[in-house]
User: Fold this.
Amino acid sequence: MAEVTLTGVSKSFGDDIGLENLTMTVPDGSFVVLLGPTGAGKTTTLRMVSGLDTPDSGSVSIGGRDMAGMTPAQRDVAMVFQQYSLYPHLTVRENLEFPLKSPVLQTPKDDIKRKVGEVAEVLQISHKLDNKATALSGGEMQRVSIGRALVRDPSVYLMDEPLSSLDAKLRSDLRVELKNIQANSGATLLYVTHDQIEAMTMATHVGVLDNGRLVQFGSPREIYENPVSVYAASRLGQPRINVLPADIFAGAPAGAQTIGLRPEHIIQGDGEDSMVKRVERLGDQTRLHLSFKDRELITVTDAHTQLKHGDIVKIRPENPYYFDAAGARVA
Amino acid sequence: MSFSVTDPTKGTKWFAGIAVVAYAVITIIPLLWIIATGFKSPTDSIAYPPVVVFEPTLEGYVNLFTDRTRATEQMLEEAGPPETWYDEIARSRGTVISGPSRYGERFLNSVIIGFGSTALCMVLGTMAAYAFSRFKVPLKDDLLFFILSTRMMPPIAVAIPIFLMFRNLGLNDTHLGMILLYTAVNLSLSVWLLKGFIDEIPTEYEEAALIDGYTRFQAFYKVVLPQAATGIASTAIFCLIFAWNEYAFAVLLTSGTAQTAPPFIPNIIGVNGKDWPAVAAGATIFLVPVMVFTVLLRKHLLRGITFGAVRK
Assistant:
């Protein structure tokens, strides 16, 4: 396991900027989740670390060694692709053995057998080992694909939305499993996702990317509770943070253009009137869509609320975020 | 009643069936006629109206594989009773076998040159196609067009320069020369066909292999090639058929050691009058390797092994 450092990494694809002066340290043994919309540079970052792409400028080092000029094989990284990319001409077992049999590792036969068995057990694919890779369901393929990374013991695991194609139950099982594996083995993991539950539950650190730049890096709680910008604030939170003009409530600080209200920043039963537009019952919680001074906002209320369309609820903000015209946090 | 827009109707199915059968019959009749002629006697082979039911004989095959001389009654008596069945067939026509013909040798030349050039063409073709498909090659499109343009005229149009080149290089009438020539002619087709097949293989597989600890060449060999098997098989069949059937260059550039079967078969006609059964026998045997090769590779032609393992 090793620390991964990116220093001033830039990469462009023609006129498109992939990464712009990205500097980030993935501490040894950490689970770093990269967040950001499509095109923010998450996958590009993984490819820079893996060596599948090389930076236009800047440097990548793994375990203190500069990776310039190193092939992916020499870097000792394992990667799970967003598209599962199992070798279709091989069986599941051969797919899992493939990295172990590489000229770099040349694992002894007994070790291969043991490791493949262990990983298949963890990922619940033992009964499918002798199937052709193409004869699996999507979820099974993705598990094999994760397994192909887990059989190894690399410096760093890179995962590109590995759970996105799985159904909800399997996703939550594997989320727990991946976190366990990482916590027990002390592996360093760089993980890309759109899913905020994955980010919040698994990450030790979250990096928020915006247009190829790292805008905030910290623990998930830190990103959630202390976002540096309206952009970073919008990455986490379910339902999403409400962003409204700052003067909609009294007491905005100077320079504030917008106010950011997470559901828990909205105190109900006190303050100004708002009207209930829609009530969404999710079981464990109920979401309220409110209309406040012609603006829409969403908050969460008691699961057994009696509120219905047209009711009036008083609301007031508590400890909200204020952002300036450029979206940067002012208070 | 169940109804589906995409399922063919009964009438369409019948029409398609009849069309396929008709096409198959039309294609296969000349082939069957050649095979039948190989087993006919010379009289039956030129009978008019043509005979469909006849007494089969191996005379055509004996004539194909042997050289014979016309013998007088006295010579036949001196030679004693025929020792083998093919001796007997030759004697019945008043000839004695003076030795084996050169068909076997020519056939072997065809095998060496046909399969040799196909193999070389596949090795060079897959590597070139892979490079064109995956790497940033300067002037890629121009190069590809240039490669294709070598097929825009019939190869025989450059026969004279090739003849002179071969003479100066000492490649005339050599196996190596013919293998190089057929490879050069087939390479453009194989690069284009194979590039299409390799383009279809997602690059994720190689990237996964690179990360799994393999070099670029190992990834090509272990991951790309098996998935390109379908394309390689069909391209190989095209190349083999061209090299196997090629006639004009074979006539021009070979005479003794490296002559292939196609220029030899028409020679049979001149030896002892028009010996159609022997010609037909030669053609029949000549068909076998390509048929076997195609049947062996058939499962690769039909199997699309890359489908379904990458989520699109």
User: Anything to note?
Assistant: The CA atoms of residues 90 and 96 of chain B lie 6 Å apart. The domain at 104-263+287-302 of chain B is CATH 1.10.3720.10 (MetI-like fold).
